[in-house]
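input
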Amino acid sequence: MIILNFSHPLTSSQLAQIQALTGQAPGRIVAIPCQIDTLQPLVPQVTALADACGLSSDEWQTLPLLVVPPSLNYVAAALLAEMHGRCGYFPAMLRLRPAPASNPPAFEVAEVVNLQCVRDDARARR
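output
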């Protein structure tokens, strides 16, 4: 499994939680810095973010991917659309949440969301 991380670095505890949830150890973590110039068009910047993952066309279509999306909502939405185009499906997404009563603030893995299943299930509600 390849983790495409467009957010903060993942901790060893979070990586252990991912392995427990997925049953797989991350094979590779690709950290992609996600800085967007809000004065410039979004789509070319999102295309550059996807390109920065360094995956070939075959890899986009065949490797198991887990995405940690950027926190800026419109960047995340456009990036998932770009990834769908490259993969042919929506990749799985990691959702983090604040750890209860953590001081200083810390985040834990909440769940792995299979976005393709979300999309497929929604088709039944058309």
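quick obs: The mean pLDDT is 96.
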